[in-house]
Amino acid sequence: MSEVIVVTSGKGGVGKTTTSASIAMGLARRGHKVVVIDFDVGLRNLDLIMGCERRVVYDFVNVINGDCTLKQALIKDKRQENLSILAASQTRDKDALTQEGVERVLNELREEFDYIICDSPAGIEKGAFLAMYFADRAVVVVNPEVSSVRDSDRILGLLASKTRRAESGDGKIAEHLLLTRYSAKRVADGDMLSLKDVEEILGIQVLGVIPESEEVLQSSNSGNPVILDADSNAGQAYDDAVARLLGENRPLRFMEPEKKGLLKRLFGGG
Amino acid sequence: MGLLDLFRSKQKNTANLAKQRLQIIIAQGRVERGGPDYLPMLKRELLEVIRKYVHVDPDAVEVNLGTEGDHEVLEMNVVLPERSNGSAGA
Ligand SMILES: Nc1ncnc2c1ncn2[C@@H]1O[C@H](COP(=O)(O)OP(=O)(O)O)[C@@H](O)[C@H]1O
Ligand SMILES: [Mg+2]
What we know:
The complex is a heterodimer. By secondary structure, chain A is an alpha/beta fold. Helices cover 41% and strands 16% of the residues of chain A. The model of chain A has no long low-confidence stretch (mean pLDDT 95). Chain B is built from 3 helices and 2 strands.
């Protein structure tokens, strides 16, 4: 049985692509057959984060239009052979993705893969709608910040109404909260919403908390999903999140400010 | 937390302000979106609040959206346990 997981948020720039790349890599590292699809038509980016940008020949829209076979368009990851990437089209045609076309491709992918990760574009337009429509589960990426939280609530409303599962009464999509760019220090200082605050406001189960971390940018620079950086807090937090996605019980980490020297503790700063 | 941090956080606990603002605006947004979609979530949250004070079962709370004349009415019914002494303790 394969599962379609959408990584979504409403607001842009909160970490959906970063998350899609790391979750896909994490699931693949655990032996599952995984494909990750970039739904951001016109703004292809997942290929860069996965480090395969120079190997894109055909894209998602090419497959839908029958310009190539699915097999031709899938890019096999060089680090993990059971992981494939399907790139977004760079076309400016907003209607390039059709519901019928997306369904056809997903059905074909379901035959080969255990997990199909859909990296949603920002917004609540067609691209975001199609990325979530066929999902079995949703990872809602949220930053501890007012506009991100509000947009996430909008997305939760859509997940509950504008998806195939919702329409057919096939049981609700499982919703997971992934709180990213979290700064335990700023939460302790009282100027950032805490995990508890966000959980309370949105009312969904937490899958993980990813700390704000410099290594995310370094990983993007080098085209390696941050989960591969086992020394980084973000990488470890993503590994925990993947484990929880698979049903493992792991305590949250990196929820306390890092300990500082005595002088700094006394006089703040940093 | 350092000494200066203590002073600082007294001046501005903006996270709390953010939370309060979000709770209001999101509740409003959910009602505006209408339909029964938000009802399960609203019900869950109400239940949690009620449970801070009295222990009630999930099915003791009923939340409905209806119309009365030309306006919509959000109706909540809570059936309290037979002999509630008021305090529930933490
Ligand atoms: N945990 C994190 N710590 C620091 N920077 C992050 C983190 N997660 C994401 N970012 C940065 O935020 C930006 C947006 O991330 P991206 O994954 O492209 O978001 P989206 O796909 O939602 O638009 C990128 O510059 C990325 O490096
Ligand atoms: Mg993105």
